[in-house]
Each structure stands twice: as structure tokens, then as C-alpha cells.
Amino acid sequence: MNVLEINNVTKQFGNLVAVRGVSLNVAKGEMCAIIGPNGAGKTTFFNLISGFFPPTSGSIIFDGQDITRLSTHERVTRGMARTFQITEIFPELTVFENVRIAAEVAGGYRLRPWMSRSEITKVHASVEEALKLVSLEGKADRLVGELAHGDQRSAEIAMALALKPHLLLLDEPTAGMGDQETFQITQLIRRLHRDSNYTIVLIEHDMRVVFHLADRICVLDQGRMLAQGTPQEIAANETVQAAYLGNAA
Amino acid sequence: MSSEQTRKLVVLATIWASLILAPYWMVPLGGYTALATRVLVLGLAAMSVNFLLGFTGVLSFGHAAWFGLGAYGAGLTLKFLAPSTPLALILGMLLGGLCGAILGTLIVRRRGVYFAMVTIAFGQVFYYIAFQWSSLTGGDDGLRGFSRHPIDFGVFKLDILSNANNFYFFVLFCFAIVVGAMGYILRSPFGRTMIAIRENERRARFLGIPVERHIWIAFTLSCFFMGFAGALYALVNNFADPRGLHYSQSGDFVMMAVMGGMRSFWGPLLGAAVFVVLQDYLSSVTVNWMSFVGLLFVLVVLFFPRGLLGFLQRSKA
């Protein structure tokens, strides 16, 4: 079954067509990577999926329901979580507090003036589970703003996980990282995919990461879907090589 | 963990003890009880402003409107409706809070400077209404001809009109209820979403928080607190002044909050205390007292960006 079905989506800003008739299906448990040169429309495409702005035309189906016109927070409530190219966290709060906010919102407690003991226990269990998945359980009491870049990114992913998402959108999870941290995050994403069976769509610049992780690769170029297929197929695709891999090499 | 908690408990106990004993230690120090009452009421107003500014990260520059509406609501109730102090407080709070809630729906879509400008604009609307509608509000002269009423407990009556200490303790009781409510809200899941919005609005939105709705709720709560403070202020003076709605009054509240420390819960109370005491002392020495308060404000902002209380907390830790 498809978690996400994107049908012929177009986004136009004035005269600029940033995304041009792109379609994409993501099956449950699949890891799909979106690549493409700078300005190819990857981030715009991501923003359309997560509801930053509505598409000019086309439709987006999530878990069998049309979410094309839904706001961001409604999409999150339905099980879509995302991280950002530039880490978006609450720097002056601890790791625990960061993830707790996510867990409380996911539990439906965001408007509650009080919580029962069992509800608090449930929230704490969900925070601990998310921290364990990203191996941050030992740093729960540290301020997120004081952590290393890789750990901050892990904390952001933990917040997304605490939302109990059906679909995880990762925007350049290894952006601005050194080899060590890139390795750490790649391993984390691979665990989430292989062991915890999350459905993941990610944008990534680092080709080693993409070919290492993804079940399927989609190549965007000038707002169009140039090609999609397994890593082997994409590596062998001549159009892609001309447009992208050739330039990169 | 326990040492941190004991420290907090000691601080809290010190604050409440000094508030409860204020009439006894302020007089020997050259103050007077009514001054302490003013500190409490203006401190409550500054804390209400800071509920938004310090904990939701939204700067309202028109909060005096809800404060002034609370004052007029209380005054008009006492003058025309019924000689009941509790009713005056409740209706004053409702007037400020409900007007804030309704206009808040229009305000919360703006951010930053635009939010501040829109709040000033709406605040000034209420200022001019109070100023022009002389037949009801007394216009420029303000609303006079009412006074706070003894509180009837059935068994006995509490005289809060002529006994300054009784009135202080009554105001302290009201202050404690509202401040307790604020503290409680800030520690709730809802309060944590406010802090999430302050810290990173985009992240809050992508955690599934409907940001505008939450800002509106925080704004509305803050307006109710503000209306309540304003109603108390009408009781303090037995008078409601149109200048209580003016944006320069809003500026004073923001100044108290920032001077005291807007990231700390109690900071605005300290800011209000400094402001009120300086005003009381300096205005008897010079008509230009505001320039000295302004100078202090500039110095605090330059050298203690976290405010006086923020500085005290930092140097203790």
C-alpha cells in the first residue's frame, strides 16, 4: 500500500515554475531519496509535501486521504513528520524537554492544563523510546543548543520520531557535517529504515549516503522528474549522468 | 535535583514572605503601604505582559488597552451597577479579556514589529473611545465618583477602603490567585507549547502545533490577567484614567518587564517595584523623573540584557 501518492504536482511562483508536473508514489516501509542539482526544486517539492504552501495544481494523497489543501499542523497530526536542512530545534531547552513537547502534542495533550500520572508516564516512555532510537538517552538533560551538530540533528530526528509518524521527511540530514557525523547519521537512518521499518523520504546531496541508503532514487532537474529507479538503474542512466552525476564528478 | 529544588523553594518562600510582610518592613524603610499596593498591581500587569513577551515570544505594545478597560469596567460597575468589589473585579476582567480575545483574532496573524504596531493601533482606538465618550467615561478628567466597597463575608465585613493594610492584603490575595494561575499554566503542556513557539516557531508548527491558535489563547489569557490588574488599579485609585489605556502606559509595562528580566517569571515584579519606587521618590524631587528611569532602563538593557533578576540569578549560579 502507498503511504504517499503525489499526482502531477506543479508549483509556480510568479513566472518561475519551481516544480513541474511531478508524480511520486512511496510504498509503506520504503526509503526514497530525492536528488538533483541545486535549484532543481527539491526543497520546494518537500515543502509541498509537508504543507509549507499548497501546490498550484495536482494532488497529494497521504494514507489514502487527500491532504492537498491541509495545513502543516493537520498533516503532522495525520502522521507526517519532517526535519530541516538547517536543524530546527529549541536550543535553550534540554534534549528531554525538546522531545517531550513533541510527545505531548502527539499524545493530544497540547491544550491540556493538567495531565494524569498515567498520561505523564506514557509521555515519558515515548520520549525515552525516541531518545533510545537515536542513541541520545545519555544526553537527555543536556541543553540541545550545547550539543555537537550531529547530536543536534539526532535530537531533531528524535522529535520527529516522538510524533509516531507514518512518514518521515528528512531534508538533507547530513548537511554541513564532517565524515564522522555523516557516518553517525547515515547509520541512524539506516537503523530507522531496516530495524524500525519507517517509511522515509529524504533529500540528500552526499551521493555516498544516497546510494548506500535508498531503495529508490528520484532525480529532479529544473523542476521535472528526470528519472526514478533503484540505485543501480540511476547509476546506469545516461540522462542522469549528463544532467547531474557527470557534473558532480 | 534536590538541591536545585530546595533553592527554588527557598527563593519562592522569600518572595512570598517579603510580600506578605511588606506593610511591616516598608514603613520603617521610608515607604508606605499604598506604595506596596501599587507595586503589586503594576507588577501583576507587567507579569501579564511578560506572559506573552517572555513566554510566548510575542511583543504587545498595546496591552494598556486591556488594563485600562479593566479599570473602566470596575469603575463603571461600582458607579452604575452595584456597590460590590468582587463584581467590579470580575466585570473589569471580563471587559478587558473579552475585548482582547475578539481583537486578538485579528492580531495573532501578524508577527514581530507588525504585531506590535497592530496592538498599538487597537490600543489607541480604546484610548480615544475613553477620551471622547465623556458622558460615560468622564473624558479627559477620567472616571470619578466611585470607591471600593467593604467586602461582605456575611459574618464580618472587611474594610478595604480606609484601612490601607487590609486593602494591601486583599490585593495580595488577588495577586496570588492570578500569579498562581499563570505559573500553573506555564508548567502545563499548553504552557510548554507557548515556550516552543517562543523558541522556534517553525519547529513548533512542524510538531503539529497550530501556532496562531496557541498564540491567540496565550494572548487572550494575558488580556484577562491584564483586565484583572486594571480592575485592581481602579480600586487602588478609586479613579479610572484614560491615560491608563495610552500606548505610553503599554510602554511602561514593557519597560518594567524588560528591566526586571523577561525570561524570569518574577522579573517583571522586580521591574515594577524599581519603576514605582523610583517614580514615587524622584517625582517628589524633579518633574523630569522619567529621564532618570529611562537612563536606568538603558543601563540595564546595555549591561544586564537578561534584566535585573536575570543578572541576580546568573551571579548566584
Class by SSE composition of chain B: mainly alpha
Shape of chain A: globular
The proportion of residues in beta strands of chain B is under 5%
What can be said about the biggest beta sheet of chain B? 2 strands, antiparallel
Q: What is the structural class of chain A?
A: alpha/beta
Radius of gyration of chain B from the CA trace?
19 Å
Helix content of chain A: 25-40%
Helix and strand element order of chain A: EEEHEEHEHHHEHEHEEHH
Overall body shape of chain B: globular
Reading the helices and strands of chain B in chain order gives HHHHHHHEEHHHHHHHH
* Greatest interface by residues involved: A-B, 31 and 23 residues
Distance between the termini of chain A: 37 Å
Which residues of chain A form runs of ≥5 with pLDDT under 50?
none
**Order of the strands making up the biggest sheet of chain B:** 1-2
3D architecture notes:
Chain A is built from nine helices and ten strands. By secondary structure, chain A is α/β, with parallel strands linked by helices. In chain A, helix 3 runs parallel beside helix 5 and helix 4 packs across helix 5. Chain A is globular, with a radius of gyration of 18 Å. Chain B is built from 15 helices and two strands. In chain B, a hairpin with a 4-residue loop joins strand 1 and strand 2. In chain B, helix 12 packs parallel to helix 15 and helix 13 packs antiparallel against helix 14. The longest helix of chain B has 27 residues. Chains A and B meet through helix 2 and helix 3 of A and helix 9, helix 10 and helix 11 of B.
